[in-house]
């Protein structure tokens, strides 16, 4: 796996540029070019009821985006990273996925968006749709996150996202590719964490010896994962847990002070995906950390 | 915010006028029903009685079909149509004068005019007004929007891929296919299916504007004149009792306009094609074979046609919903239409819809605007139904000949959306010929005894919808898509002066001379 070309999509949220800068360490692992993408949602300028298309408004938005990107390009140049600007009008998700295909990007980076309850239940935000459908890894950036904690509201800044990535594996092929993604980050990762959650439903149905066997097998596999990371000179530690996958992954990520959660995209059936989202999608939604989902 | 303050002031002035009107004053004295010439309201029984108006009870009931309350149309003042006029003027003027504001606030504008009518209407006529509002929502708006939604959803799942080279013959072929499809998948559906292939095929052409204009003429309007699925006005007619296949009576009218316009188009395209020096040149780009993705959606289109047809053929009785009687088969039809849309969404790849640039925004816009249109048009429709006894008697008396109906319906359809205009003159005709007769009987008689008038109204509403960008909903969608794709489109007045007046109006004069001049 390589991260030579990144598609960085932004709708110019307040920390978009900081989020972009947090990717600069990837230069050390081969990042050559960033494609800066801004999508003008079609409904923002098109289909004016009985009117048509707001050409001037589109032009203005386009120019604003271009000027901002040009400003960012100066910083990218200084960091020795090439960049290109793409400004499109259309359906957000479709444009992001299409541009990624056109550009042959190795990674899509996009920001998280607050969702309404309605969106959470029935639709899913655009980012979850991209996570579901992308053919390349998607990094869901969360530069500045507001967290509700027992001590009151906290703000977390995710600016060194590659230092302590945590791979949550279910031993699937996408998880395996997630491991390869971390291996590709050698040199910028300080410590990698590998975790596996034994589903509590599985434990309920098993007798003590079977549970012991399961734990033993899981630890063996975790060790194997860690060994492969160490081959790349990455310090690795493993954590096994029993419980419900989503809360356990979130808990471990906090306890181990992970800076990024890496997961293979889970392939649940489409009804579950549509209505609830798989584990990976729920983590992407709920975690205060950036999430890298590998298909 | 000044214009908004102005309209708010207008609203409160209107409310004040209503509350101060003799009618409102009369409602306060409903204790003595023997007073001649006054209006009495008993709110609980939803009966409004105007003593001494000389209208037989059957006539009073007839104007509403059923329900047993009197003809509000005979007592509503003409200025109760002001919110309707303002609603239509908003649609006509805001996109032209203040498009940015309109784009972001059209829903609020529609809500504002609806409330301007609904609040005073409910305050003065209470239960009767509520009945009228529910009546138009359940019997007109709901089925109307469900049909549009299902056609839009299903046709949005069909995508024509591949390389077409925009020669005069190919372009004319697209227009012919679009015109043929429009009556069966709706003008919006046919236009959305074919506009992008047409634009792609003609990317290399220098002069593309006229192609899109003729596309609007034929596919987005005139092609939809043969069935209630084709164009929203005809579906409203169907909902009010016009038989599904009755609209085939305007096939000759449609063919005449179609042939005139298609010939004009072919000549123009051939001229420009030669002028651009493209004949004989091989395309440089890689050719992709033509293919239709999501073609299984044609099955759902057949389902929609079947559902609408079935609702016109069977009689399963009625059910009362919020006190409004509605035929069971109409509810079943609406359910089936929703089912067709859902099946289309579930079985069509997201990629096909995305490549089709499918978005819900246009249909949401139509839903917002039309709730405003339908609510504000209540007084206008009631007055027109009252015929010579209503406040618009002068209009009814002046519109008498078939060509009057054709041109007046048409002229208003050019600048106001054609669906409410159709309904307005449909009611004018009923009020003119069959005032006081229940709608179901009146419509049947209109179809059989005075078919030429209904043909004139139908043809006028559908054909003239092409005269401006605001005449019919697909017009603005096609314009938007074309402009986004880089095809320059004429301004509002440019469209009318350069194209409508030159091509459409002479064609309509031809239709008048051949079919309506008697």
Could you describe the 3D structure shown?
The complex is a heterodimer of chains A (295) and B (518). By secondary structure, chain A is an alpha/beta fold. Chain A folds into 2 domains: 1-111, 3-Layer(aba) Sandwich (Rossmann fold), CATH 3.40.50.620; 159-295, HUPs (Rossmann fold). Chain A has helices spanning 16-21, 42-45, 55-78, 92-103, 117-123, 126-133, 173-183, 200-204, 208-231, 245-255, 270-275, 279-286, and strands spanning 5-9, 33-41, 82-90, 107-111, 138-141, 144-149, 152-157, 165-168, 191-199, 235-243, 260-264, 291-294. The longest helix of chain A is centred in the first third of the chain and has 24 residues, at 55-78. Chain A is globular. By secondary structure, chain B is mainly α. Chain B has a domain at 2-150 and 365-398. Helix content of chain B is 67%, strand content 4%. Chain B has helices at 2-20, 22-28, 57-62, 82-97, 99-155, 168-201, 209-218, 232-239, 251-275, 297-313, 328-347, 350-355, 361-376, 378-385, 393-398, 402-415, 418-434, 439-449, 451-464, 473-484, 492-516; strands spanning 39-42, 47-50, 159-161, 291-293, 318-321, 324-327. Chain B is globular and about 70 Å long. Chain B starts with a helix and ends with a helix. Mean pLDDT of chain B is 83; it is low at 1-5 and 15-69. Classes of the chains: A alpha/beta (295), B mainly alpha (518). The A-B interface holds A 42-43, 45-55, 57, 89-91, 93-94, 133 and B 91-92, 94-96, 99-100, 102-103, 106, 350, 354-355, 357-359, 361-362, 365-366, 369, 417, 469-470, 473, 475-477, 479-481, 483-484, 489.
